[in-house]
Amino acid sequence: MAKRRKQKRNYIVGKPLRMPAQTQMHYRDRIGEAVKRMLADVRKQIVDLMNEDYAQDHFAAISKPVITMDSEGIGSQLRILMNRLKAAYDQLFGQLAMGLSPWMVDNINRASATQASLSVVDMPNLKSEGAKLTLDIRKLDDATKQILKASVNRSTDFIKSIPDRYMNNVRSEVYDSIASGNGIKDLEAFFDKQESSITNWAHNTAMDQTRKTFNGLNAGRMRKIGVTKGEWLHSGGSQHPRELHEDFDGEVFDLNEGAPVGDDDGNMVMPGDEPNCRCTFSPVVEYDDDDEKNADDVE
Predict the structure, then answer these.
(1) What are the pLDDT digits (tens) for 80-135?
(2) pLDDT at residue 34 tops 90
(3) Domain that holds residue 117
(4) Are 269 and 261 in contact (CB under 8 A)?
(5) By C-alpha distance, which of 192, 183, 162 is closest to 91?
(6) Is 60 exceeded by the pLDDT of residue 206?
(7) Is a pLDDT exceeding 80 seen at residue 299?
(8) Distance from C-alpha of 50 to C-alpha of 145, rounded to nearest angstrom
(9) Residue 293: which residues within 8 A CB-CB, separation 6 or more?
(10) Is residue 44 part of a domain?
(11) Nearest 10 degrees: CA dihedral of 178, 184, 189, 195?
(12) In a domain, 280, yes or no
């Protein structure tokens, strides 16, 4: 049976630009391994501290509603421990960021170059320029190089921020448990909740970093060769899809401005800009009336 023809339109759509899963998974997993190591170590060392004889004596002796942390007591030991843990994991995540961030961006840049080339070179209006386009797409202009640099910096800042995000919450909660006299009793549920929260946040943010990098480089490459439009592709599969993104699936938007589907009352965003957004786009080439016959032959 012949395929039902779509309604006529004055543009041609290239192949979808899909995130390279292998690079994304490696980046996410390397960060996840470091987070898992930090969580286990911090929890163990704090629990060990709380089980020391001087800590147990402190909890047994509490009789005042407000506890002053003596410099020789558990409060002082906790400050020393937290400072040592903070320094150790600042160094660990700093080293991870310096190697992993440029690795991620470099791999996604190469995947972007390949996919962007494949997406446009077979489009009728661009086919005759295929070889030149491939060269132009792979070579970055100054504007796209800035996207590359910003992506490395954004990833580096994210990875380096992980210990602070966790340690600050831990420090506050442990001090409260000492002041209340409850010790470990208050901390077990806290650690369980915090470990789940920081693990999920790091996982989702790592995925977001790769998508932002990929879509940003793709948009920059398209603008470089004069392709200024894209067709929004909703990812699907989410239990809680954004209604605006879902409704905009298949619509054409300006790669310079984004699409009016943002969480902030429909502000302009690009695919992958918003947290946990897995949307992407296909490049769009508009044609004049003289090109209509060639475009009609493409389905």
Answers:
(1) 999 999 999 999 999 999 999 999 999 999 999 999 988 877 666 555 555 566 66
(2) yes
(3) 20-225
(4) yes
(5) 162
(6) yes
(7) no
(8) 51
(9) none
(10) yes
(11) 90
(12) no
Which of 214, 219, 222, 221 minimizes the C-alpha distance to 268?
219
The structure tokens listed for 83 are: 């400072």
pLDDT at 62: 62
Q: What is the pLDDT of residues 48-72, one digit of tens each?
A: 888 777 767 766 666 454 444 443 4
Instruction: Give mean pLDDT, residues 153-158.
Output: 98
- What is the total count of domains within the chain? 1
Q: How far is CA 26 from CA 20, 21, 186, in A?
A: 11, 9, 36
The DSSP result for the chain, as a single string, is -PPPPPPP-SEEE-------HHHHHHHHHHHHHHHHHHHHHHHHHHHHHHTSHHHHHHHHH--SSS----TTSHHHHHHHHHHHHHHHHHHHHHHHHHHHHHHHHHHHHHHHHHHHHHHHTTSTTTGGGHHHHHHHHHS--HHHHHHHHHHHHHHHHHHHHHHHHHHHHHHHHHHHHHHHT-THHHHHHHHHHHHHHHHHHHHHHHHHHHHHHHHHHHHHHHHHTT--EEEEE-----SS--HHHHHTTT-EEETTTBEE--TTTS-EE-TT-STT---EEEEEEE--GGGHHHHHT--
Nearby residues of 36 by Cβ (< 8 Å), 6 or more positions away: 199
pTM of the model: 0.84
Residue 66 lies in a domain: yes
- 258 in any annotated domain: no
Across 33-59, average pLDDT: 87
